[in-house]
Amino acid sequence: MQLFLDTADVSVLRDLAATGLVDGVTTNPTLIAKSGRPMFEVIAEICDIVEGPVSAEVAATESKAMLAEGRKLAAIATNVVVKVPLTREGLIATREFAIEGIQTNVTLCFSAPQALLAAKAGASYISPFVGRLDDYGAVGMELIAEIRAIYDNYDFDTEILAASIRNGAHVTGAAIAGADCATIPPDVFAALFKHPLTEKGLDQFLADWAKTGQSIL
Ligand code: G3P
After folding, report:
1. Which residues of 75-152 form beta strands (DSSP E)?
2. Among candidates 148, 153, 95, which has minimal Cα distance to 124?
3. Residue 166 CA: which ligand 1 atom is closest?
4. pLDDT tens figures, 101-152
5. Which of 4, 38, 49, 146 sits in a 20 to 30 Å window from 154, CA-based?
6. Could you tell me the distance, in angstroms and rounded to a whole number, from the CA of residue 210 to the centre of ligand 1?
7. Contact 107, 86 (CB under 8 A)
8. Domain boundaries defined on the chain
9. Which residue, 73, 95, 77, is CA-closest to 86?
10. Which of helix, strand or coil describes residue 152?
């Protein structure tokens, strides 16, 4: 399973990328706004830090304008994936991007039929929003499982990128449901390393080791 970081904060990304466990990055207009920086500068910097896919989202709502924006974003670096909203216009653009060999991440997916259409349009990634579905009163993880079954039934290559991840349980659920990747906010990513029993156990081991007076090196 590939783990992406859902951020446009370059210093936070640098810190977590140093673990070697960040396979890619996703951004969206909200995250770019939060960074307070020009989008092209931020995306270029992220692409220098991470070799894997880096999603950069179009702002247009009409397919021709999405295509123009997406081509410009894809020219930033070879690992840019153009993020397109799951609308009728977005899927028209996705289909054309696929013909042109430009990678796409179809975002704001909230239903299995939407995901089916995205795969048929040739999306490289589909982003079902797990957390926002939970907030809405649905069970977000069920959507991941439904999409997995549908894509496997028809051998679609579109990768399932579990998005709107809010906690470690979402990461576990996405992995069990067979998501190809999950995009994780930095605070949730950092928390994945931790467990209170790990800390407690390590404290005990270190204390007992100190009593032996030994040294390994
Ligand atoms: O980038 C898309 C997605 O991960 C957004 O998550 O937390 O804003 O629902 P959230």
Report:
1. 80-85, 104-109, 125-128
2. 95
3. 7
4. 999 999 999 999 999 999 999 999 999 999 999 999 999 999 999 999 999 9
5. 4
6. 45
7. yes
8. 2-212
9. 95
10. helix
The ligand 1 atom nearest the CA atom of 135: 9
Q: What's the burial of 167, exposed, middle or buried (CB within 10 Å: 0-12/13-18/19+)? A: middle
Place of tokens 């407690």: 200
Phi-psi region of 125 (alpha: psi -120 to 50; beta: other; left: phi over 0): beta
pTM for this model (two decimals): 0.97
Q: Which of 141, 123, 118, 122 is nearest to 131 (CA)?
A: 141
- Could you please state the CATH topology (level 3) that the domain comprising 2-212 is classified under: TIM Barrel (3.20.20)
Structure tokens at 169: 């349980």
pLDDT (tens digit per residue) in 13-68: 999 999 999 999 999 999 999 999 999 999 999 999 999 999 999 999 999 999 99
